[in-house]
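Researcher: We're reviewing a set of sequences before deciding which ones to prioritize for further study. For each one, I'd like a predicted 3D structure that I can look through quickly. This is NAD(P)/FAD-dependent oxidoreductase. If possible, include the structure in token form so it fits the rest of the review sheet.
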Amino acid sequence: MSKNFEVLIIGGGPAGSTAGALLARAGMSVKLLERAVFPRYHIGESITTSCRGILDYLGALEKVNSRGYTSKSGALLRWGKEDDWVIDWTQQFGPDMRSWQVERADFDHVLLEHARESGVDVVEGARVKKVIFENGRAIGVEWVDPESGETLTTHADFVLDASGRAGLIGAQHFNNRQPHEIFRNVAIWGYWDGGELLPNSPTGGINVVSSDDGWYWVIPLSGERFSVGFVTHKTNFVERRKEFTSTEDMLHAMIAESPTVKGLMAQGTFQGQARVEQDFSYVADRFCGDGYFLMGDAACFLDPLLSTGVHLAMYSGLLAAASISALSHGDVTQTEAQSFYETLFRNAYVRLFTLVSGFYQKHAGKDRYFALADSLARDEGVSENTPDVAFGEIISGGTDMREAADASGKASESIDKVITDQQQRKSPVQELLDAAAEAQERARLAADPHERLTPDTAIDTNDLYDADNGFYLVMEPRLGIGKAALDA
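Model: Here's the predicted structure for NAD(P)/FAD-dependent oxidoreductase, in token form for your review sheet.
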């Protein structure tokens, strides 16, 4: 007989809404506390195809389809000194492999309302002060009721932290969040009415354009609206900011410094405010523990180069809901559920982090990036036709979904083998990662000779947790965790 756990979720973004809707639909009692009142602005517009599959499973796909978002089928990269190269998911994997370019304020609102309609008790405008622990286990939260202003205490069997970069458990309670020094970046961006994409861009695809000291994004939103931004290391941003009287002047100057991006926006009209946000990458030492799960940005944040933030959020929400569902049915022990969650979520983050790290060596060439992606995907059926397919699968989120459902455990085992091989010999993949780290260090030293990369902040390609644990994601006939060892 299953147990109907009480679950408390902090944060109503894609991670919190995904987990909340799934658990409520599974019969759990779920309360979600969101600090903002939706819709609220949030950076990020480009969505991976994996999110489409999760939305379908959530029962929210038609709601998202009805919003009129730009249909996205991939990306065009003008990176380093090479010719443009295109990743078109519909050509690689079929016509249904597509997603959207969304306005996150609207997209997140749709997901939160779907969670509410699924049975989640959503409280907006609620400020969570702290997570309560007893004997090492999370048992509830203290929060401020938006109507009465009272500080309340709510207990639960599980606390799911989707508080984003605030990180109530990882950053504030345990203080176990580790920054990645090579990605201490800053983004500056704004919106244009009118503009165009580069020739040969896949339908609705993002354009990513490198420069000597950073990279640009050009994202086609609904209508004729474009999101355009520039990402650079914080030391470069701070120095360049001194040249301008406003962030708007700086944004226009950054756009003008790229002949490519300047040309794409030549017929566009800038719409108001320029925005700035730190894109400092980090990862928590642990993604879960007794009574709690860290989801999305509360657990880790990655440079937005490959547009994987919403994927990691929704994927972690799916995994957390599967873990609690499996526990409710007695399918796994608490330790097994934690191993399942930590393995799959951390492997997803490390794989993407490793790929992005390689990209920052801009002159390595696409063949080296494809080789890196192929080694990280490690599935004979993925890249047997063309070398770009593994890359396309990883940036679509498909590799993570495939690994999660791999009952044999071979996907996790093969990734572990890649890391082991890299430890034993310096492969072309490892050389690429080493070169990326060295290039970033040289850039930092040029901007600030006193800021040096220490050994403990270098790229770690052996950051995988218990890769061969035998657990896998089950979605039918109900959400849960399978045990390969017991099912064999």
